[in-house]
Amino acid sequence: MFAMKVPALDQLKQPQSASLAATTTATNINTASSLSSSIQQHEDYDYESLPNGYNFHVHMLAGAIAGIMEHSVMYPVDSVKTRMQSLYPGGGVVYRTVPGALYKIIKNEGFKRPFRGISLMVGGAGPAHALYFSCYEKMKRVFSGTETGGRSPLAQAGSLATILHDAVMNPVEVVKQRLQMYNSQHNRVVTCASSILKNEGLKAFYRSYTTQLIMNIPFHCSHLVTYEFFQELTNPERKYNPMTHITSGAIAGAFAGAITTPLDVCKTLINTQDKMALKATRQLQITGLVNAVVTIYRCCGFKGYFNGLQARVLYSAPSTAISWSVYEFFKKSLRDEAS
Predict the structure, then answer these.
(1) Which of 11, 97, 135, 336 is deepest in the core (most CB within 10 A)?
(2) What is the mean pLDDT of the segment spanning 13-29?
(3) How confident is the model at residue 146 (pLDDT cuts 50, 70, 90)?
(4) CA distance 104 to 83
């Protein structure tokens, strides 16, 4: 019989040990790869991207909150802007600066006067800005084909968003500016709106709609393009950064507000139907943009188109900064909650 050579115990254990080591190594590699992928996903997290099953109420709710905050905080300055843009402020008062105008209004008409009509503005700003921001966010993604829309045709997205926004805000602006005028015969929103409807008809609430679109489309286009431009410079990764949102928003608002001031003066005249201006130019009504342009020149000359420039810039810069910072904050918060 042939003698059988029995392998040593250590030799039998070696293949098993090698197999176990290979399995452990593979498991460790898979675990490390999974962990690395998870970390990378966390690092690449972009609060502007839309999660799976995303519901569009996120942008609508964030936009509504931003709009209410913006118009509530800046409403006294908005009242001053209306007065300064008026061709005939009335009462023999000259408004030269925003702080000086606010002081004179409070001193002569009471502390509450600059806030008249704020409830209407809050009620209108919520739905108007919900439509504006949700439409803007949706359209810039549609046009760009990306989740963040960073390089989309922003002007087109802004134009479509503005049409929806102004459809809600135009009647609000008409009533609000009638209430803000010096020696206004109306003290309450309901009585003012009822009087306009009774004496001028439903069309009075949209008499300035075309003018407002002609003003707001370039305003919002330049505003959005400027905002996104500064975001690309200061926040190219599009992470949530409050300081960049505030700074970009303020610069964008100031620039857009300044270049569209002449159209805003025309809109104010159409909305308020300034009785002194009508009397001075022997007209019964300011019917549209061309009529407003001619009337302003007849009453005040070329400088009349820039009435309230300081107030408009001082209103637009902080209001857009507030709007964007609040909007981006709530968008991030709601996005985090949704995911």
Answers:
(1) 135
(2) 48
(3) low
(4) 11
